[in-house]
Amino acid sequence: DQQVKQNSPSLSVQEGRISILNCDYTNSMFDYFLWYKKYPAEGPTFLISISSIKDKNEDGRFTVFLNKSAKHLSLHIVPSQPGDSAVYFCAASVAGGTSYGKLTFGQGTILTVHP
Amino acid sequence: DTEVTQTPKHLVMGMTNKKSLKCEQHMGHRAMYWYKQKAKKPPELMFVYSYEKLSINESVPSRFSPECPNSSLLNLHLHALQPEDSALYLCASSQVGRDTDTQYFGPGTRLTVL
Question: Helix (H) and strand (E) counts for chain A?
Answer without folding.
Answer: 0, 11
